[in-house]
Specification:
- The protein is an alpha/beta fold and 378 residues long.
- It contains 12 helices and 13 strands.
- A hairpin with a 5-residue loop joins strand 9 and strand 10.
């Protein structure tokens, strides 16, 4: 009866319905289930059995260029105070957090050596440095080495600054820990840096066991579990060790155009190791075995003693495979373009002023992110 209805005078011919349904199915198949001819069909990659699938490399994370320190602060979030604790931070106990030195916007800071890690009250290690017209650089240098390295004596050999560095009002640390000696233009020698190193030892050898010969743009960092005193004590009784050579970690300009508020917070881009500037470093000398400067980088030792690296191995002036597992020397060789121009203008204590070719050589090796110095406060 149903088919009679479809084929009746008042019904719809069943052949017509069949054709309509078939047409709709074909249209659906053409429009939905197949791709248009002009649409690219993705090629299925061939999988070779047993072959390892190599993922695309993650883009390197570098310190982007920034013209102001505020841009760096925004990039790092170091002073914003808006960071939320992650699971690792949440696992820290209240006792651990309270024993650390916390700075603005920082969750956990490296502690003051003066509070719990400084194992000596005497001036076991000192710093001797030739400086000229670096009034703006010294406060942070003093602050870092006094509070975080436990160094309590700084000999500032002022190579004709105008005004003299001794007239600085705020040194960042108690003034009694800094000794100034001024040299006028008539007292300047061709190799002034080596000259003042010898003077420091002649005048103050009996006051200290060790003396570091570094510059105002070089910052020591203890990268292992020891503090500086403990590290040096491990070599104190070894009569074959006359000095320890600390390898550079050279920092680029990080794209800054003008002077930032903090060297350690701003310059977070370093150069790679290899046949570049990181092959060199500076020396911390055992004064009982000091026999004069070899270069500004190393000293001569007497009684057959040698200069060793952090591992106790004899260190050449150029270490092509530098290590920094116990101690490092961060060399802020360029800083911003503004500061580098000041460096070029004032010259240096070895009558060999830097030029813009040196800038290019450092910038050409840059691209290694280095954030460890941003962890220090103050």
């Amino acid at each position: 009866m149903f088919f009679n209805f479809l084929s009746g005078a008042h019904g719809v011919p069943w052949k017509f319905l069949f054709l309509c349904i078939s047409a709709l199915i074909m249209i659906h198949y053409m429009l939905v289930d197949i791709q248009l001819n002009d649409e690219a069909i993705p090629e299925t990659p061939k999988v070779v059995e047993g072959a390892a699938i190599i993922p695309n490399p993650t883009p390197p994370k570098h310190a982007g260029s920034a013209g102001t320190f505020d841009e760096f602060k925004a990039m790092l979030g170091i002073f914003s105070g808006t960071e939320t604790s992650n699971s690792e931070d949440a696992s820290l106990s209240e006792d651990t957090t309270s024993s650390e030195t916390l700075g603005p916007g920082h969750r956990l800071k490296k502690p003051f050596l003066g509070s719990k890690q400084d194992t000596r009250d005497d001036e076991y290690v000192s710093v001797c440095m030739a400086v000229k017209d670096q009034q703006k650089d010294l406060p942070e240098f003093f602050t870092h080495h006094y509070y975080h390295l436990g160094i309590k004596r700084f000999y500032i050999m002022d190579d004709g600054s105008d005004p003299p560095l001794s007239e600085m009002e705020d040194l960042g640390i108690p003034r009694e820990h800094v000794t100034f000696q001024y040299f006028n233009k008539t007292e300047h020698t061709r190799y002034m840096q080596e000259h003042v190193y010898k003077l420091c030892v002649e005048k103050y050898r009996s006051n200290h066991t060790w003396m570091a010969f570094i510059d105002a743009d070089e910052y020591l960092e203890m990268t292992g579990k020891e503090n500086l005193n403990e590290f040096l004590e491990s070599y104190e009784e070894d009569e074959h060790v006359g000095a320890v050579y600390v390898s550079w970690m050279t920092h680029s300009s990080a794209g800054l155009l003008s002077r930032p508020k903090s060297v350690r917070q701003a310059y977070i881009d370093c150069i790679w190791d290899g046949e570049g500037h990181n092959v060199q470093g500076k020396t911390i000398a055992k004064l009982s075995l000091y026999d004069g400067p070899n270069t500004v980088h190393q000293v001569r030792c007497k009684d057959g003693a040698i200069v060793v690296d952090e591992n106790g191995i004899k260190a050449p002036v150029r270490r092509y495979s530098p290590t920094r597992n116990r101690i490092a020397l961060h060399h802020y060789a360029l800083k911003s373009r503004e500061e580098y121009q000041e460096k070029v203008d004032r010259g240096n204590a070895m009558s060999d002023p830097k030029n813009w070719g040196f800038w290019d050589s450092v910038e050409g090796m840059a691209g290694i992110e280095c954030l460890s110095m941003t962890e220090y406060y103050p």
